[in-house]
Each structure stands twice: as C-alpha cells, then as structure tokens.
Specification:
By secondary structure, the protein is of the alpha+beta class. It contains ten helices and 21 strands. Strands 1, 2, 3, 15, 16, 19 and 20 form a seven-stranded antiparallel sheet that branches. Strands 12-13-14-17-18-21 form a six-stranded mixed sheet, sandwiched between helices. Strands 8-7-9-10 form a four-stranded antiparallel sheet, with no helix packed on it. The longest helix is centred in the middle third of the chain and has 17 residues. The radius of gyration is 23 Å and the shape is globular.
Length: 405
C-alpha cells in the first residue's frame, strides 16, 4: 500500500476562498472507501445485522432503484454519516472532488465569492469576507450567520441549518459571473438580511506590505492574509523590504495586521512568530495522551523592531497563535476586536482513491497553557471601525499611534 500524506490543520476545514492546513508530514496507511479496513471496529460496522437489514430494506423497497447501483456513493454516504455522528463540525470526510477543491484552495487561486466559513455555536457562520472580493463588496460581514442559500441556476433553495462545510462549499460555489443569494442573520439587526453576490475568480496573496507615514515616521503596515503554500516566500520578500526601509531612517516600526486571517499551517504560525521572538515556546499542542511544546524555530530578523498586532473577529487559529505568542513572550500590544476562538487542530489524511478526511486530533494552547477555543483573544486596546464610514481605518490609525507616540 502506498504511503499517504498527513496534514495538520488548525484553521477551518473548509472555506470558500482558502482552506487551512498545517504542515504535510509522512504518516499512517489508509485504505480507500472501496477497501474497508480489516480492524474489528470496521468489521463490526459493515457486518452489523442492522446495517445489512437497512440496506436490504432499501434494496427491496426504495422507489429510485438506480440510486442504489452506485456502491461507491453508498459507501461515501455511510462514511459521512459515521463521521457526522461525532458531532464535531471540524471532523469531516471529503469525497475526491471535495478533497481536490480543498487542495486547490490552499494554492490560493480559484473561483468563488470570497467568504471564509466556519461555525458559531454549530451554526454556519462567515468568519470573514476577504478584502476586495465580491462578498465584501456586497456588504457581507464577519460573524454573519448563513440561514438560507438560493441559486436559481443551480436549482438550490435550502436552509443552511445543519449543513456541513463541504456541502456549503458545493452549494455556494459556482460558475464565474453567476449570482447567488444568501440570507444572513447579523447581530444587532432585527430582520434577516438577503444579499446577492456575483461569483468571480478569487486570487489571494498571503502577504501585503504598505508604508504608512505619521509625524515624519514611516511605519510598515504588514498585512498577513493567510498561512498557505506560498506564505513563507512572500513573507521573506516583505521582510527584506522592511529591513531596507529601516536603513533609510525615520522608521517607526511594524503593524502586523492579521485581521480576517483565518489561519493555516501550524508550522507557518511558528515560522512567523519566530521572526519576532528570540526564544521560548510559541504554542502548546495538547493531544490525547501528551502535550508538546513548539518553540521558536529559527533566528528572526525583526526581533528588535517595535511591533503592534491588529486582530478582529475574523482572526482565527494560526493568526491567534501568532498574536498570543507575541503578547506572551515579548509583551506585544494587541489592538482591535476579540478574535474568533478556534483552538483545535485537525489532521488531514489523503485516502488512496483521492478522498480525504480531516480529524480533530489535538488542541492548541497559548504558551501559558491557556485555551482560547470559543473564547478568542481579547485585545489590549479594543477599538472598532465605523461601519458607516469604511474610508477611515480607525484600528490601523490606533496601531500606528501606539508605535510612534
């Protein structure tokens, strides 16, 4: 049997414009959905009299016999039901096409509306719309709950209650240029909001660097959008530009902006945090039987440069790890709004027929052992932008002010 890939994940098991992952690592052997495992548990499931009784009842009585002909789809359905019974929205089985989309998303260029999905109290929620995407332009906000999905062209008109992330992705994705209507529930609004979004091709960089000037000082606004396949390369290019800027003089420091960053590779979080921290633990990983300390992984180039961090409700997982580590290990000030609160780790396993499974295997904890799952990280300075005036970034202004005061 071929050796399979394992990926440790700390973001959200599916989002519409990018997905999470955490460091590919060689691992165990897994059989395809067509080759059921020989373990006693699998045998008990597949040889269960009840299982066979149900299948016989379907075979004898179900109206649309042709739907029972595709044994692979029946097995996939049984596996999905078994995984769903764990009542963990982050442990999911992906059919080959869904798994293919997951890996394409991680590469950072695909079609969609620009929505990152997760769960709030087991309800399908928008973690954040990405900047400049159709979703953001349509007025979608971080924290919105999706309650209904409608697409006339795809003949979709259904409620989102109880929907899985892969199902949501399949429903909301579609051909470029076609519209989809989402009905959203938003805190503070009395009635649901209906919004129509036209799908477009989404291309997402990992890192953006801009220079902000204030009182004669230059500040690097370093926006970290995600932790993906190309993040480290783009990050290193930005770091080189920052060091060149520092040599020119009148340099006030760095605003590390991780607002609406849904996370990504765990080793990516350690890599980024190590750019600013000399030594110590970046994150703790709590598994079933042990706890690991993940320390600084390299000699960073920005350890002596003044720094503040920006976060908001759309900052999740890997971005929360970086923010928490910087505050714990060097007292970095965090500005913005309380983060999303994603504190579990998923292991992504490739199956032999192209399918995949994401399994919650661990929790991640701050360097002091604290869990932020479903709580988030509270900023040192809480400030919100004015939703009625998006031309002024009050959070960024406050971060720059803290650097050069």
């Amino acid at each position: 049997m071929n050796r399979k890939k394992i990926c440790y994940l700390i973001l959200l098991p599916a989002i519409l414009i990018l997905v999470f992952g955490i460091g590919w690592k060689g691992g165990q052997h897994y059989q395809s959905a067509n080759n059921i495992s020989s373990s006693s548990v699998a045998q008990n499931l597949t040889q269960s009299p009840l299982f066979n009784e149900v299948f016989s009842a379907l075979e004898n009585s179900y109206l649309e016999k042709e739907k029972l002909a595709d044994q692979k789809e029946l097995i996939y359905g049984a596996i999905q039901g078994m995984v769903a019974s764990l009542d963990d929205p982050y442990t999911i089985f992906l059919k080959p096409e869904e798994n293919k989309e997951f890996k394409e998303n991680l590469a950072g260029s695909f079609g969609g509306v620009g929505i990152q999905l997760g769960y709030k109290n087991k309800q399908l929620a928008i973690i954040s719309p990405l900047e400049g995407t159709p979703a953001q332009k349509a007025g979608v906000k971080a924290g919105d709950i999706i309650i209904h999905i409608k697409d006339q062209k795809k003949n979709i008109d259904q409620d989102a209650l109880g929907i899985t992330l892969p199902e949501a992705v399949n429903l909301i994705r579609g051909e470029k240029g076609t519209p989809i209507e989402l009905t959203l529930f938003r805190d503070g609004e009395e009635k649901p909001i209906k919004t129509t979004i036209v799908r477009q091709e989404i291309k997402i960089p990992s890192v953006e660097l801009k220079i902000v000037e204030n009182n004669g000082k230059k500040v690097a606004h370093l926006k970290l959008i995600r932790f993906g396949d190309h993040t480290n390369r783009e990050w290193n290019q930005a770091v080189t530009k920052i060091l060149n800027l520092k040599q020119q003089g009148n340099f006030g420091g760095i605003v590390l902006d991780m607002r609406n960053n849904p996370g990504g590779y765990l080793n990516g979080a350690v890599y980024i945090a190590s750019e600013f921290i000399d030594q110590g633990v970046v994150v703790q990983q709590e598994e079933k039987e042990n706890k690991k300390m993940l320390p600084v992984s390299r000699s960073g180039k920005l350890t002596q440069i003044p720094l503040v961090v920006l976060v908001n409700q759309g900052s999740a997982s890997a971005s929360e790890i970086v923010a928490g580590a910087l505050r714990a290990q060097k007292g970095t000030k965090i500005i913005g709004k309380t983060t999303f609160g994603k504190g579990t780790i998923q292991e992504s396993k490739e199956l032999s027929d192209g399918a995949g499974i994401h399994i919650t295997t661990a929790r991640w904890l701050l360097p002091n052992g604290e869990s932020i799952h479903q709580k988030g990280i509270t900023p040192d300075i809480e400030i919100d932008n004015n939703p009625q005036d998006e031309t002024e970034d009050l959070q960024l202004n406050k971060a720059v002010e803290e650097l050069i005061k």
